[in-house]
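Form 7-S
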Amino acid sequence: MSLPVLIVAGYLGAGKTTLINDFLADPGGRRTVVLVNDFGAINIDAALIKTAEGDTIALTNGCACCVIGDDLLGAAKRAVATAPDLLIVEASGVSDPARLALLLRGVAGVDPARILTVINGAAARRNARDKFIGRLFAAQITSSDFVALNRETDYAAETVARLAPDAVFIASVGDALNGVTSVVAATMVDVLPEFKSRILDHPRPTSEAALRRWTATLPADVHRAKGIVDTRDGLVKFDYCQGQTVISALPFAPRYDVGKIVLIGPAGACTGPETQ
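Output:
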């Protein structure tokens, strides 16, 4: 029996990770392998963590999270070898999920991937009309089998009806699984040529207030900034997207570099203030 794959897509800040994290809290008995670029992106509830060793976190409900690095194909093959019940691929906000679905056809033992696109309705009109991301935003919707509207608006619903008339509206990953019997979760660093990323160092302990002041100085050409930062109260994950900043404590110490801040924006334009 082959393993179905669900790709969770959507532009930066749409709410993909929240949707997946909600599912991990109650996977309905499915043994799920979650492949992520970093554990901080998922920010798993400490009560769910059974063990954390190397690149793998085992959860108490039988699920597991693994760091994939830059090799989605290899990570997916390794995940399939563990015979999970479920394979979910969380695409990066600036990737084309149709390209990922095509790539995953190279994994033996899986069905063609189905795509769940998450849309932040509050930013839908702006994203659709943006000269840098409008085409990508539309492509993410057009390729979708399922759509989850976060902050639903008439504009977002009308856009889906126009670009993906056959897509099914859902409220959770579990809803999508009515038509997908098994899934694994992966975060993919697959950035289209129209975008570029820049890494800044923020090595010194800081405060949450100082971090918020820093994100407030980010220029308009930075669409996303995220990282794990050492504060005087401990390690925190911060995530800035289109003017909104979310800061949360980490329940465990990540094994990757602390103080590395990733900025994402249109190619040739992504800049950011100094971190010192």
